[in-house]
Design brief:
heterodimer; A: eight-stranded parallel beta barrel; four-stranded antiparallel β-sheet; B: seven-stranded mixed β-sheet; 6 helices; 16 strands; 36% strand; globular
């Protein structure tokens, strides 16, 4: 049998994606900024910048520092707040060429539930990502995603407000990401985004001061890819819901690593700052790869690198 | 022959390096074959240069000059990304996204104008100088650098008809002072166009605001995406500014401010709308 064009379509809960590529929250604006350079009908969807209950001015500048194989950012969840967002921004997404995923951040369980509820009735947004892992806000921002019990309570509270698919974005800045993943699943998450940025810092050796206005930031780009691949690999074996793999994906090889580790879809963020044509190129190359391997669908490679969790050879009688 | 259509819509341009010139140690001028970009770019606009290696984020670079089908970029080598670009030999392909941003408005009717450039800021003001000279303005160029060798392209401005006021930090050419000291001492111009490091621009803005001179400042900030998608390169504006993006104003220092994106609403802002 000769395969016709292999399918790149995939699903995150009820959210059907024509391409397995999401554009990472905060990296792609509302999509319109990239529309002159990228064909938005050739990507799966855009995860919008996180919105909070109240407006946020964000962090002082500098907010970005380029680092070896990546960048540090500390934007600080700048956003106009949910009311303004509903009134003046959501209309942009009525005629959308791809899926639109809202992103919600908060500083209390009630915040998350409130914003999710306000979005629940709006059909411009087809799914919601819960950002429980922003490393760049002074109060509690990342605390939720670093604590399995708090994550569970946030997800449960959000779940109660909306039928939209819920994607929970996990932090890599934890000892055991699978514990957080399992409790997010238990509370009703439809999918997990793995992972958010890794906390980091850069110092200006001339001025002897931190280079970011916020002092610390979140590291993204190829520098964190192995960290993210491991996180996807471990989470994939801990839960039964789909994973959106993310962290430094720039090309076909990088994308394949994440699918093979267990991701059902991938998210591309910082690579858009290198070349806005990358997401479209990755999709085309994935399709060609599947055809070469005589595979009918991207789903056939998900998790295929799974050989269990590694353990070192042990001496007999060693209980360690 | 039909009239050539000028497409102002930004896009990815596949350009080719025609010439590479090292103007001074660590200062490179690349001339590119880029017909559509050359016809679209306006003074003060920039491009995001996509690294041929794909190994780093794109670099924001002012379009220095255009001529026919050629566009050039002038930059200082400051790190890995600019080193890669400086290594491009004639014949190499360089993809750039552009032309981006809101540049200088050179169409005013001021007869006596000052251009203030600090270091690599010179790259953003040549097209501006050409436009101002073309409409018959007297153009004084206040140009400062660390040392004489880094006052690149000064002669080109002089040859075109600009009056030069040069300064260096070490006194190797012009006065040993900051370029803003020279500006403060000079007879006030009717308008100012400036590009350079932030401390210089703040000072230019202060001088302009004190004397109620309309000043257009091209800001320097680290860019992420360069197209308005990441909000990494913001600057505070008074909420009354016509350039302020669609965002609820915040109270700061007793006035209403909003953050604007240097890459999208800028890089050129008016001195009296900035709240930095």
């Amino acid at each position: 049998m000769v395969n016709s064009t292999p399918s790149l379509a995939t699903k995150l809960g009820k959210l059907e994606l024509a391409y397995p590529t999401l554009m990472g929250s905060g990296c792609y604006g509302s999509g319109e900024e990239f529309a002159p350079f990228a064909d938005l009908s050739k990507i799966g969807g855009i995860v919008l910048k996180s919105v909070t209950r109240l407006p946020r001015l964000g962090n002082p500048t500098p907010r970005l520092v380029h680092t070896p194989a990546g960048m540090l950012n500390a934007i600080g969840l700048q956003n106009p707040g949910i009311e303004w967002y509903l009134e003046r921004e959501l209309h942009k997404y009525k005629d959308r060429p791809c899926r639109i995923v809202g992103s919600v951040a908060g500083f209390s369980i009630d915040d998350y539930a409130y914003v999710c509820e306000r979005l629940a009735g709006r059909d411009e947004i087809e799914a919601v990502e819960l950002n429980v892992s922003c490393p760049n806000v002074a109060r509690e921002g990342e605390t939720f995603g670093c604590d399995p019990d708090l994550t569970e309570r946030v997800v449960a509270a959000a779940r109660a407000t909306t039928d939209k698919p819920l994607i929970v974005k996990l932090s890599p800045n934890v000892t055991d990401i699978t514990a957080v993943a399992r409790q997010a699943e238990r509370a009703g998450a439809d999918a997990l985004a793995v992972v958010n940025t890794v906390r980091g810092m850069a110092i200006d050796v001339e001025s002897w001061r931190p280079r970011l206005g916020n002092i610390t930031g979140g590291l993204s780009g190829p520098a964190i890819r192995p960290i993210a691949v491991l996180a996807v690999y471990e989470v994939a074996q801990a839960v039964n819901i789909p994973i959106v793999g993310q962290g430094g994906i720039e090309n076909l090889t990088d994308a394949l690593e994440f699918f093979l580790a267990g991701a059902t879809a991938i998210s591309i963020g910082t690579a858009n700052f290198t070349d806005p044509r990358i997401p479209e190129r990755i999709a085309a190359e994935l399709q060609a790869y599947l055809a070469r391997r005589n595979l009918g669908s991207i789903s056939e490679i998900v998790g295929r690198a799974n050989v269990g969790i590694s353990t070192a050879y042990q001496y007999e009688g060693d209980e360690g | 022959m039909g009239m050539a259509l000028v497409d102002l819509h930004p896009r990815v341009h596949a350009t080719k390096v025609l010439e590479r010139c090292e103007l001074a140690h660590g200062v490179t001028l690349l001339t590119l074959h880029a017909p559509q970009l050359a016809s679209a770019v306006r003074p003060g606009q920039f491009v995001m240069a996509i690294p041929p290696s794909g190994e780093s984020a794109a670099t924001a670079l002012a379009v220095y000059d255009t001529s026919g089908k050629h566009a050039s970029i002038l930059f200082f080598v400051t790190g890995k990304r600019t080193r890669e670009l400086a290594g491009l030999a004639p014949g190499a392909r360089l993809d750039v996204v552009g032309a981006l941003g809101n540049g200088f408005d050179c169409a005013g009717n001021e007869r006596d104008v000052a251009i203030v450039a600090g270091g690599v800021g010179i790259a953003s003001v040549w097209l501006c100088a050409k436009a101002l000279l073309a409409r018959g303005a007297r153009v004084r160029l206040f140009y400062g650098a660390r040392t004489a060798e880094l006052l690149v392209e000064a002669q080109r401005f002089a040859d075109a008809g600009c009056e030069l006021i040069l300064t260096t930090d070490d006194g190797t050419r012009g006065e040993r002072e900051f370029v803003t000291d020279a500006l403060r001492r000079a007879a006030p111009p009717e308008a100012i166009f400036a590009c350079g490091p932030s401390p210089m621009l703040r000072c230019v803005g202060q001088i302009a605001n004190e004397r109620e001179i309309r000043a257009q400042l091209s800001l320097e900030e680290t860019f992420g995406c360069g197209v308005g998608g990441c909000w990494g390169c913001v600057v505070a504006l008074t909420a009354r500014s016509g350039r302020a993006p669609n965002f609820p104003p915040a109270q700061r220092g007793g006035s209403d401010v909003v953050y604007a994106r240097v890459c999208k609403e800028g890089p050129v802002f008016l001195a009296d709308e900035l709240r930095w």
